[in-house]
Amino acid sequence: MPLSPTFGTENLSPYQVESRREIISLLKGLQNSNQLISMLINGGAEVFITSILEVDEQNDIVIIDSAPDNMANERIAHSDRVSFEGLLDKIGIQFAAGKITRISFENRPALQFNIPGSLIRLQRREYYRINTPLSTPIKVSIPADIDGRIVVLHLTLVDISCGGIAILDEKKVLDCTIGKTYEHCHLDLPSTGPINVTLQVRNSQELVLLNGKTNRRIGCQFINLSNSVLSGVQRYIMKLERERNSRLNGIR
């Protein structure tokens, strides 16, 4: 399954790998190095930590660890699309699976999907995205024209990179036309403080949650980000990475 950049904020096509031999090599690299990877469903609303147990080239399948509980595995198996993100030698790897099956592997619960037809290998540090904590959501303030008057919308930040952010617009009131630019936006990052940014819409995606409700995920690119603001964004990303690595190391 080709991986379109619907979950990100940048055009990642230059980093797309379609060579089957290279894809298998990268997946086996994640397996052999025992790298923990993130498994995302519902557009990133739920994230599970897993690892690759087996890359079966002959049968065209990848086998991964299951989620901790039965209900979570049911939600994963019923998801139309599951995304994966991990690091291999400090290079970001992203891929997706269209259908995941619950199986038993070496006498324990596991999940299985077809080897992806493409994946993204992020060779540049500034394109590395990281999810922001769901437990302490960060709000992005965006002045927008709603029915002829300027209203400041406070939308939830779901991921961030040095190139831009992704936000959730639950009420679907923000104009998400590709190329639409919003100036004087405020992003309040913990330990960095509020920063002013200009955002340009790059993509949007309608999400259908398991409870039947819908949400809209919007990817925005930073426009003319100053060096000082970029440094603040980088510091925050590094902080999130340190916190995530600490959690992952605790799982090992």
Q: Explain this structure to me?
A:
Monomer. Interacts with the flagellar basal bodies. It comes from Undibacterium luofuense. The protein is α+β, with helices and mostly antiparallel strands and 252 residues long. It is built from three helices and 16 strands. Strands 1-9-6-5-2-3-4-8-7 form a nine-stranded antiparallel β-sheet. A six-stranded antiparallel β-barrel has the order 11-12-13-16-15-14. β15 (193-208) and β16 (214-222) form a beta hairpin. It starts with 15 loop residues before the first strand and ends with a helix.
Record keyword descriptors for this entry.
alpha+beta, Pnp Oxidase, Chain A, Thrombin, subunit H, nine-stranded antiparallel beta sheet, 3 helices, 18% helix
Oligomer: single chain
Q: Please report the first level of CATH classification, the CATH class of the largest domain.
A: Mainly Beta
Strand order of the largest sheet: 1-9-6-5-2-3-4-8-7
Main beta sheet = 9 strands, antiparallel
CATH superfamily of the largest domain: Electron Transport, Fmn-binding Protein, Chain A
Give the distance, in angstroms, between the N- and C-terminal Cα atoms: 31 Å
- Tell me how many strands there are: 16
Order of helices and strands: EHEEEHEEEEEEEEEEEEH
How many helical elements?
3
Beta-strand residue percentage: over 45%
What level of helicity do the residues show? 10-25%
The 3D shape can be described as globular
Radius of gyration: 19 Å
